[in-house]
Amino acid sequence: MKRVASWLAGLCAVAALAVCPAWAEAGEKGDKKKLVFIAGGRSHAYGQHAFKAGCELLKKRMDAAYGDKLVTELYTDNWPKDTSVLDSADAIVIYCDGGANHPVNKHLDQIDRLAKKGVGIAMMHYGVETVKGKSGDLFLDWIGGYFEMNWSVNPHWRNLNSELAKDHPMTRGVKAYATQDEWYYHMRFPPEMKGVTAILSALPPKETLSRPDGPHSGNPFVREAVAKGEKQVLAWARERADGGRGFGFTGGHFHWTWGNDDNRKMILNGLAWITKLDVPENGVQSKRPDLTELRENQDWPVPEKFDFAKIEKELNDQ
Fold first, then answer.
1. Exposure check for the chain: N or C terminus, fewer CB within 10 A?
2. C-beta contacts of 108-111 below 8 A and 24+ residues apart
């Protein structure tokens, strides 16, 4: 009789694992936090919007920094085929093309359900842009802001004289820095930035508004703000009422900017923070990628006569 009971117990356990893969995964995860990277598909040109390469690099640095405290997973081409893998995530970072075709627009209810459970959410570069209405309102809730067409702009410029938030985990050990990037600005935020902390800010030069008005290039509202000398928020953080955390980062157009130690540290700090891992007093330490590593996992072949010497000089001069 005891043998039969034991056999039945074993059979029930196997059946439970078969019908409850999420439970099994959670058991394997144990006390570790789980950070999921979602990378967009191929976009733009070599070294630009290199979502997969950027996520691979950041994932590798988070693995090295947090070891057995963290499980990281990377899904490419805009979304995991098995969406249930997100159910056990502690945080999700999405680095992709955005706007009307933002991949999250097809999964708003799932991400909102996870956010309401306290899951951290981050959007990077074009990933901060979505459309007004339900999607924009949810971005305001999840991460605190978003790129709104005919309000926000997307010029290429160097964020000289930038300022960092004081006493926030995302800026621990980070020094003010400048990189040549497609720094979006004049984001749509809640009134008076309620519940949102400006992490990285700078006053854009007037040349960033040299293009005529258009959905991404300029509008009377942003021109007035810059003319009045209003510093623009380039990265921000949000702590939600549900206990979750989020951040938005408008840089990351050029893959080579991950070679900037302060830029990379600020984002690694942010990823740790939204995952609710301890951020060290001097920030998340990571090895600076050399040019060989930065060339890995690119979506496009190297163009003829590409100026790698210029990129290497930029990395060495920081």
1. N
2. 108/134, 108/135, 108/138, 110/83, 110/86, 111/86, 111/138, 111/142
The structure tokens listed for 61 are 């640095």
CB neighbourhood size of 42 (10 A): 14
Over the stretch 90-132, which tens digit does the pLDDT of each residue have?
Answer: 999 999 999 999 999 999 999 999 999 999 999 999 999 999 9
What's the first-to-final CA gap in the chain, in angstroms? Answer: 74
Q: Read off the amino acid at residue 264.
A: R
Distance CA(147)–CA(155), nearest Å, equals 13
Q: DSSP states of 195-262 as a string?
A: TEEEEEEE---GGGG-SPSBTTTB-HHHHHHHHTT--EEEEEEEE-TTS-EEEEE---SBGGGGGSHH
Q: What average pLDDT does the structure give for the chain? A: 92
Spatial separation of the C-alpha atoms in residues 162 and 241, rounded to whole Å: 29
pLDDT of residue 28: 52
Amino acid at 70: L
User: How many Cβ atoms are within 10 Å of 71's Cβ, its own excluded?
Assistant: 19
Q: What is the mean pLDDT of residues 287-314?
A: 94
pTM for the structure as a whole: 0.90
Alpha carbon distance 94, 79 (integer Å): 9
**Which residues fall within 8 angstroms of residue 1, CB to CB, at 6 or more apart?**
none
Q: How far does CA 133 lie from the centroid of its chain?
A: 22
What residues does each domain of the chain span?
Answer: 21-317
Q: Do the Cβ atoms of 190 and 141 come closer than 8 Å?
A: no
Write the CB contacts of 43 (distance below 8 Å, at least 6 apart in sequence). 49, 51, 97, 126, 299
Which CATH number describes the domain made up of 21-317?
Answer: 3.40.50.880
Q: Token match 């070599």: residue? A: 46
